[in-house]
Amino acid sequence: MEREVASDGAPLDLGDLVLEPGLTLVVTVLDEQRRPMRGAGVYSTQPPGEQSESCVTRASGACPLEGLHSGPVKVSVQVEDAPGKTVEHRVEAGGGALEVVLERGPGTLEGTLRVSTGSPLGARVSLKGTAYRSARCDEAGAFSFAGVSAGRQVVEFSEWSFTWWTTAQVGVGTTNVQVGPTPGGARLELKVPGPAATPPANVLLMQGAAAPTRAADLESPPAELLAQAATGVRVEVMTFPLVVDGLPPGVWTVSSEGEKDGVVKTQTVTLGVGQSLVVELPAGPPRTHW
Q: What global pTM score does this model have?
């Protein structure tokens, strides 16, 4: 509750402040056969200020979202073995109940994660497509997503300054993918023209001719853009020169933000097996101080 007051430093009598008790919305999460789903994460956002609450479903598939107020609310559900779902609901006086039914897709997406150093054990890969999900890898780098919706899906993994992704067309049955640097792959060395130049903040490498058209897509590429390339790497640039190892051979489009104007600049290179190339990127505004 908020009340505006003005004071010259003297004690104020704010009168009676009446606090309304929060409302409770009991959310029950069911699968496509209406069986309760235990361990689902349930999240709510509600204006004003996008107030948020959360809970985790019990064996009954239900959990309470507490502290809500009457009015519209968005409820999102996330689970490990099915696509998530967001629904809009209206909380009435006295609270209420809401059922959310999740439908598993017809496909299974399995794969292997390759890391540049160390072990992949415990590393987390993310599924970005019709819904966001994540899974942890075992000691061999294996991971699996069950109940995946049919269509183009993007699997990505972040390591240091690099985010690797691979796309796959998922249908009925099992689809296999490989994520991360390719052993014995090509090498790309990224440079900027001179020590006084400011390097671009992000660089996007996409296998094929697809490329972003907006500078914002370099910082946070949407899944629709990533799905246009068979594989790729997003580089959060720290220092130059910067080397990206393990790229599959083929045509690659290198995108970065141009000098001063914020326009995305692209150039195309062709990489052979085990080949090493140097690419000079357009620089940002010259440094005025160190």
A: 0.69
